[in-house]
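step: validate -> pass
step: tokenize input -> pass
step: predict -> running
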Amino acid sequence: METFYSIQGEGYMTGKAAWFIRIGGCDIGCKWCDIKESWDANLHTLTTVEDIVEQISDNPSKTVVITGGEPLIYNLNYLCEELKKMGLKICLETSGCYPLTGYYDWICLSPKANQYPSKDLLLMADELKVIIQQQNDISWAEENSQKVKEKCLLYLQPEWSNYKKIMPVIVNYVKRNPKWSISLQTQKFMNIP
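step: predict -> pass
step: emit ->
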């Protein structure tokens, strides 16, 4: 769908510069998705791995984030092989409902209740980032936190259009359950892509 150089706005790597590869195509259909234009892959020009690698060849951060849509709809082995040849750190953002392909230095799993993540991806996640739109989403977050590895970082992130309303709920929950941290979509506060 697009590649762009920006600042990671969410989760563990908040504030770090990274080159983003946004892959078109997603069949999960979260009603609060802020990149709905990524859902239909046919709306975007097909781009070769070679073109993607060329676009990011001048990456001063040495970090790449593969995101979507849902990137794991596709086999990402070749893309990751080419990125690794460039000496890049590769991060993946996924819902976890498709089998893992590719090679990653960091996996951010953001599970969605309408398509459960695979057990394998839950165990591989370095970061579990659960979007909280309403209070009962916290039980979904807790359910998934019981399935990840012990060193997986845990984040609750308010859904953007509802963050003012849900933030007090999240803050109170994290204060009572400090295994969790809060992730914000800081890129939206900074007004950057």
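step: describe -> The chain has one domain: 2-190.
step: cleanup -> pass
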